[in-house]
Amino acid sequence: MDINLILSAQTLGLAPQLQQSELINGLYVLKNVPLKTYLRVTPEQLVILHMFERPQTVPVVLGTAIRERQCLPLGEFYELVLKALRANILQEPGAQPEPVRAFEWPWAVRPKVLARALVVLFCVGAAMSLGFRPSLPTSVIDWVAGILLLSASLSFGSFLKACLISGAGGEVYRPRWRWLALPPHFAADTQDAIMLAPSERMTIGIAVPAVLATAAGIASWHRPGMAFLSLIGLIVSLRPIFGGRFVGLIHVGEKRSLSDAEHAHLFPPNSSTDARIRMLRRGLGQPTTWVRMAYGVFWTLAALYCGARLGEMPPWTLEFWRRNGLRVAVAIFGSLVALGAGYLAWEIYHVLKERARARRNTLRLWLRRWFGAKRTPLDEAGRVKLLASSPVLSSLPPPERQELARLMKVRRYGFWTSLSEHGGNPTLVSLIVSGKVSVRRVMPSGRTAQVQVLSEGDIMGLHDLADPKYPGYTFRSRTPVTLLTIDREMAERIIVRNVPQTTLTDMALKAPFLRRIPLCQNWHRQAIDRFARLSSITAYEEGDSILSEGQTVEVFFVIFQGDARVSRGSQLLATIRAGEFFGEIGLMQNSAPSASVSALHDTRCLSIPRMELLRFVTHNYTVALELERVSSKRLGRPIFPLRQGDFRSI
User: What is the pTM of this model?
Assistant: First the structure.
């Protein structure tokens, strides 16, 4: 599954034959009838899926959801798309997977008819199993009879489940004998129960345990040696983990269950440590989580009780608990502690792994800049490769790049060295091979300020052409630097004549600035370059209005240079500086700002029209997620989904 392709360019549409259940535990269940696949979704997620009724790409649907104020949290949105595609609820137009045919089950019983009877059988059978004293099989006859009884119980329970599902209007699939199972028994695929009402699902869920409990109870009373395997089967079927049947009944009564897009994530960003911690908090806040934990303790005690019944000392005696009570308590408490410690250790491992990977990459870059620059291949083939990776020089035709690679010379400078040949009236134009360079400029107010930090792949010596209205740039190395240089006159002939002015401004001026601001720290380089191409530089005089309170937001702004003030009426709320941004909340929420922004001094902004920003964000999910994260942090609450009263923001 190519996630990047799916979420950016692939056309998807709803499968043609879908069946939808009633609202169950706050969720709808969608079924692809020919393929027998299921997807549980919330009403809000269902609205998103219905946007695919006419086949279209994921970015188009996301843009529609944002405009219509129906957007989900973006991680949930992308997860929903991937889960729906995996379940064939969404398909590529023209796709025709192999269908799965339902079996024409001839027997049917309405769950309502047997509901009370199954509960009574389960309770009576469990009481008899616990009340009478089963024993280990002592003969071959007991073992064979026990296996046959367990096989017959599982087979009849599965048969009864299939009848109940058929009686409730569901489908039965692939009934067969499972000869390789332990023990061999008849079974049918009854997954279609997920489409039924909670009361019907509870009756179906208790069918197999009720039959097992009845068999174990009768055998315990009649022939204790035959009851052992049926009792084990009952205990295993009621296990609190790994898909136990009773745990499923606990979740049937929930008011709001988790949809398939809210757990077992496919979308990689949803598996981050922060996301897992949020899921843990959410789980601990659910009453059913604590019911499951209590049931786990009860099941453990019941299993210990049944095991003790096979011994010489009955578990209901005071002597048993005097000798073993502390051990039982320690075993239960220790298992809970071990479970929590295991989860904590797993999370710590992931955190350390992520941080170690980031630190390793940073350390490698630092070592290469300070000690490994001479190992970079700078022969003609190496130079051609470096030129092709430069955002500015990659736009040159191949013959010009080849000529430039032959003419460029290698120069190295130490730490904190003035690169005066590249500023003022530059005599050299250079491509940074390794290292970092600080760029400063004299502002109209007369003060000097750092405006950029250049690194590998960036160009020096053309800033006066990239920003002709505001010359006066100076350069100084921040680490040892290695450059490929060429005379300015030669560069004008080869580079300037072949590279459009807009490309020069975008890649030499805007892109290096964007790479250093917090908003773009986690973006791909291609996304940053695209953002630079989409944006335009606008200068403002002191006091000019950039964004007005109460007016529809049509532009997203990033402070490129200078400062701006945020105010509401005559009250000053904040001062924002270069690298900070505003207007994105109103754009993404389709709302009006609750404050005004005006220029202070030396203010220039990068601005992108609303539709261009939405198109850019929806086609770059890493950008969308980062913008959502930063905006939610600024708001103090999630920006998606929108609720009443969320429509006025800065």
Answer: 0.80
